[in-house]
Amino acid sequence: MVPSNSPFSLTAEEESRAIEDWRAFLRFPSVSADPAHDADCRACAAWLCNHLGRMGLHAEQVETSGKPVVFAERRGRPGAPTVLLYGHYDVQPADPLDQWRTPPFEPDLRDGRLYARGAEDNKGQVLFALTAVESLIRRGALRPTLKVIVEGEEEHGSRGITHFLDTQPERVKADVLLVNDCQAVRTGQPTIVMGLRGVLSLTIRLDGARHDLHSGVHGGLAPNAATALARLLATLHHPDGRVAVEGFYDGVEAPSAEERTLANAVAEDATAYQAAVGVPPVAGEPGFTAAERVGFRPCLDVNGVHGGYGGAGSKTIIPASALAKISARIVAGQEPKAVMDAITRHLERHAPAGLRLALSDRSMPGPALRLRLDSPVAQRARAVLEANGEPVAFLWDGASIPVVARLAQASGAQPLLVGFGLESDCIHAPNESFALEQFRKGHAFVAAFLAGM
Amino acid sequence: MVPSNSPFSLTAEEESRAIEDWRAFLRFPSVSADPAHDADCRACAAWLCNHLGRMGLHAEQVETSGKPVVFAERRGRPGAPTVLLYGHYDVQPADPLDQWRTPPFEPDLRDGRLYARGAEDNKGQVLFALTAVESLIRRGALRPTLKVIVEGEEEHGSRGITHFLDTQPERVKADVLLVNDCQAVRTGQPTIVMGLRGVLSLTIRLDGARHDLHSGVHGGLAPNAATALARLLATLHHPDGRVAVEGFYDGVEAPSAEERTLANAVAEDATAYQAAVGVPPVAGEPGFTAAERVGFRPCLDVNGVHGGYGGAGSKTIIPASALAKISARIVAGQEPKAVMDAITRHLERHAPAGLRLALSDRSMPGPALRLRLDSPVAQRARAVLEANGEPVAFLWDGASIPVVARLAQASGAQPLLVGFGLESDCIHAPNESFALEQFRKGHAFVAAFLAGM
Questions:
Q1: How many A-B residue pairs are in contact by the CB < 8 A criterion?
Q2: Do B213 and A308 touch (CB under 8 A)?
Q3: What pLDDT shows up at residue A104?
Q4: Whole-angstrom Cα distance, residue A14 to residue A132?
Q5: Which residues of A touch B278 (CB under 8 A)?
Q6: pLDDT (tens digit per residue) in B16-31
Q7: Are B324 and A226 within 8 A, CB to CB?
Q8: What is the pLDDT of residue A2?
């Protein structure tokens, strides 16, 4: 990590100003999922625009089909590269409110942490990056051209930024895409996220009789939509956990030996996993470690299944219809559309007799992202993070941030995902917070990284 | 059928009196499922008790742990057999009310049918039997000892009558049990029901993680309760439709060649079934006709399955829990408890790794009922019904009337189930009705049958 006495550390005066800005940013209840907070989201975007302007960037609140996107730019030295910073100003809903020790939109600094909804995710991480930019500008040390894009719907479908990227992709052209919307590994080591899985989802519906049937009169005659759906879902996996959809694994890129070693180095053991989650990590394919299954292997999950009676006691019916929601996480080398097509073919091939199969809600927000260990961007980030001797962790994350792959594609930039969030920040939960120490580390990293470009 | 000029036909005066009684009986909204109608049920039972008293029976409203049971008795000639008549005075709820042409509890006679909730099921069929008894008493032609038991919870679990049979079984001892709570075959031919299936049901629950998990972070690690439940339910059947539970078919009694011929003689064809129900009759075991599968074979159905997300769009979670309701219909020769035990063993043997299996709501209301074609009771009923030349249909019904097997056991009587209801009566639905013509046929049959004993 950058030593605390490095030239990129926050000064006391800078920190006190940064905390005031951070508090101001957090006071907007910019909950994107709730239309009642539309005005709060717009006010938050306006504050951020104004803040970027004061920092010396040309900032603009871009109207979209969704919530406004804040876009800012500052020309760098001739010939210097372009860095695109990505973040989001919207937050998750704050409920359940009664579980907060202090109100979610009245930031409270205690025990070295700032408590508020968004304190970490993502206002805290956006703000340490902007504070780093501000420091460099003040010292005349920011050489690259800087672009900043902060969306208002990361927690609710990223509609606005998608519209922006579709209509004005040339504005985000860059060499490096810096994303500070990640968490570090559980040990708290400085972490570079080297991979994200892509995601796709669909709804399966089976329809049969005109209405639920009497199971005595029709049992042994009428095809049962619930039984048939269970049987159809059971065809999706082999008994050993491998996905049984023909072509599902086509194109999957295997990790290198080094990637595998690095991924396994930070893996949680099964006992700790069970203690934390309540189940042992026994799903997925045989022949791969837990870290490999999450980081390098695709998977297919039933997200929900519903049909027939679910109340107290019994109701002896043959359900007329049933539906399931399924989703796949895909990895580098897999084409979302090809996977969706393979699943569709599989379901149609296994469609039960006597019932009507309907597939809908097909969604393919984005492909996977896999970064190269030997890329100059990753190597430079590693060098900056290891400056004080603490080894960097490399994480192949099983989750998806679909907008990152889209941003990488639109900008043509090399993505760099560095996470300063920790499990103890309780993002998306009551009493979210972010430690000043992590804020300082994030600031120092971004400043050192940008100064070196 | 009994010729219309038979000595057992209703006279015009008797019919007009019977219709008045029938209307009075139907005006009570004796909905057993709704506690708001408790007083209506009691008032209905009191009316019935009083009516039986006026007919010359010793009638009593027996208090139970549920709704009162109406029990009445009339001593017959010395040495004459005892006949037990069974019916119920409760009705299904009347909603949706806006679909009734006339109010459900204001009986309306139009086009030769009486319209009201309960017009057929079961007040109409109880009343034609009582009218027949009344005619015979008035003519001095009722030789057997007569017992009448009319319960108030047939549509809601038969709790009261079960309590009555458990505590006072000696009161129902009889030689013949006459049940008029059945429907005729679709052709409308006079029908003797020769078999009913038994029923049993249970709830299956799988529990895993402490809460629903993020499918990106945990996909390929955490066992998925919805996927696992689908896989577990899929083990219940072989691909060809046979039940795969070891021991499930133990003891199943095969029908005789004659029974099979008679059952197939009244079967609906696949085209008519699909037109009526909306699905082809393709479920059940290979090697048996539709009539055989419903009448002589047990089956296992998923009545409902629920777990995880079921709303609009997608929610990419790994469900922490899921539940299913399943039920079996069983046939002659199968022990309900043995079948329940076989299903339990199967589910426990196939319980998925990493999740907790819980079975609950085990219910075994009653075994199957299969009557002998050559029994004197069935043969006498056949002779009475065929008196005017129309051939009798024999039906092995797939549904269950659990209380009939219990009544047969407690009374020691030979059951006789004759149905005068028709599909067009719309029982359990809006605009329930019963044709006067069917009422007259029922009356004539019961009168002729009792007079011959």
A1: 283
A2: no
A3: 97
A4: 10
A5: 208-210, 320
A6: 999 999 999 999 999 9
A7: yes
A8: 45
One-letter amino acid at B122 equals N
Which residues between 179 and 218 in chain A have a beta carbon less than 8 angstroms from any beta carbon of chain B?
197, 199, 201-203, 208-210, 213-218
**Which residues in chain A are closer than 8 Å to B234, comparing Cβ atoms?**
230-231, 233-234
Kindly report, residue by residue over B96-105, the tens digit of the pLDDT: 899 999 999 9
ipTM of this predicted structure: 0.90
pLDDT tens digit sequence for A431-448:
999 999 999 999 999 999
Q: How large is the average pLDDT for residues B245-265?
A: 97
**Which pLDDT score, from 0 to 100, does residue B1 have?**
44
Residue B152 in contact with residue B32, Cβ under 8 Å? yes
Q: Give the pLDDT confidence score for residue B156 in this predicted structure.
A: 85
Residues of B in contact with A234 (CB under 8 A): 230-231, 233-234
A 411-450 near B (Cβ less than 8 A): none
With beta carbons less than 8 A apart as the criterion, state whether B197 and B330 touch. yes
Q: Is B287 within 8 Å of chain A by CB?
A: no
Q: Chain B within 8 Å of A233 (Cβ-Cβ)?
A: yes
| Dist CA B343 CA B422 (whole Å) | 36
What average pLDDT does range A165-187 have in this prediction? 92
Selected residue with higher pLDDT from B211 and B112: B112
